[in-house]
Amino acid sequence: MDNRNHSANVLIHLHMPKTGGTTLKKIIKRNYDSRKSVDVYEEHHKLPGIFKGLSKQNIECVQGHLPFGVHEYFNRPTTYITMLRDPVDRVISEYYFIRNIEWHNLHESVMKMSLEEYQGLPKNRNLQTRYILGGQLTSVTEVNRAKNILKNHFAVVGLTEKFDASLFLMKEMFNWKQVAYQKYNVTKKRRSKEEISPKLLEKIAKNNEADLELYAFAKELLAKRIRALDPLSAYRLKRFERKHQQGFHGKRDR
């Protein structure tokens, strides 16, 4: 696998909410000097001031709920990674996660909402596509621009449902040595998709059409990356996945 153009760059982990990003964040932290690794979880309007300061520091890694585009604040090469998730499952997971976490800033308001009400909020529609587009989605047709961004600006686009394969590609790309992990930010006491009415699932899907299209594109990107592995790397991937399936990893987030 070719990692010559990425391992020395500033790594930007675009952490999508409820996609397995907290687990990935913990893994990444163990592979970078803590003095050169920064977490940024702030409202988007505050990011320009924050990144103007970071750009002057010797930063190697930035992680957070960041929109695409923050690389423009750096005068050094940067590399993005992210994890995407089935959009319908992501919305369901986020709803129950917030309801289960009393310290969450949205807990009180979400406790008063049904899943149907929550999924209908504008902020929950096509969230993943909006992150990739830099925070705005004015038309569903803009998903093609989001696809091009994933293809041309992200070293690895992982999938929650293929966490171990995604992690393998990342560790190879960036020469990570410490990749054992446990599950963080698990959504407990949540209903599965099978327990939710087909009509509501259809509504969630309708409100996330761009995300569904982007997710399908990301699935194919990942599949192509895996198919392109040389025989030795393909063998090592299977061995890596097998170890994790046997409990080597502990747990990961849902």
TrEMBL record:
Transmembrane segments: none annotated. Pfam families: Sulfotransfer_2. It comes from the Bacteria. GO terms for cellular component: membrane. GO terms for molecular function: sulfotransferase activity. This is BH3370 protein.
